[in-house]
Amino acid sequence: MNTFTVIFLIALAAGTLLKWWLARRQLRSVAEHRDLVPESFRESITLKVHQHAADYTTARTRTGMLESGVAALLLLLWTLGGGVDLLSGAWAASGLSPLIAGTGLLLSTFLIMGLLEMPFDIYRTFVIEERFGFNRTTPRLFITDAIKQTLLLIVIGTPVILAVLWLMAHAGERWWIYVWAVWMGFSLLLTWAYPALIAPFFNKFVPLDDGDLKTRIESLLERNGFASQGIFVVDGSKRSGHGNAYFTGLGSNKRIVFFDTLLRQLDAEEVEAVLAHEIGHFKRKHITKRIALMAAVSLVGLMLLGWLINAPWFYSGLGVTQPSLAVALLLFLFVVPTFTVFVQPLLSGLSRRHEFEADEFAAGQADADKLVEALVKLYRENANTLTPDPLYSAFHDSHPPAPVRIANLRTLQAASG
Known about the structure:
mainly alpha, 16 helices, single chain
């Protein structure tokens, strides 16, 4: 057996077992605390609401365990099971040029993967979300979204894949530098264009009505020198009962977006506090830092692929008998997550640190009490568990656990006043 095959199998088994072990810890932690609301939340969260969140978390975690097992099995079928080899052979036999056949291989693989993952999407939407009162998606809307996502994959993905494969074939030994430049340029362009060109393809965005909330928001933006293309409300309620708010776009093309569900859950002062937190991410340059990290990681990844692409053991170790540029890229995309699962706590830790910094900024720009009240409402309305397992959270959660985050805000409030 190829040495790389052994390494791959060990990493895949270890990663899958790690996910299951962490999920078991999460299930145990939630179950042990199901019948007692954490002390700091007892005035704002009822036992019934707390148990509802515990049951929702349990259902999602169990589904995640099954999904990770199926994902590992599918990865084995794609690689050592011969799936990639079979599909690439079919495209090679089509008589098309290597560039077109390679593009077809990547696109068809992504489409097949989407179809294979769809049963879990359907179950999460129409069983779990429906059972716990969050689903607003109709079967027709679900199918329409799937068709739109497929069209976007083809329309946007085709030229990008063509460009990448062409550079891999014609840009010399340092092709990965040129591919990296194209990829980063495309990513930044897509982020810039998303608010006006892509998001409206799925949702309706309307300007926020004049009133106390808009006045508060405009005042907050002016105090912080934050320019945007407008403040919008998105019809998130047509798909889900969950609330959210976010910034989208880059540069002068930034938009502030509130879910209509969130505006129904929070009052004007609470929305202002939530927005102050989001502005904190920009003022603390978290977006720039994340883009820089993405750039560095993608450059290292492409450099690694530049080495692997000429290694016969890389292909044979993953069950491929017909090497090609497209196959190398596809195998790399398949295998990288198998190894990066072990560094996930580092990325999650960085994200949580950014959340603390944004909270600190918000506490200086708005009423910290109102941010706490907003967070409690969002935890309650979105059925977020208040008692996650610390180790599970370290791997999976981009935000600090609710008790930790709110205790930190209380500390900031006490220090300021």
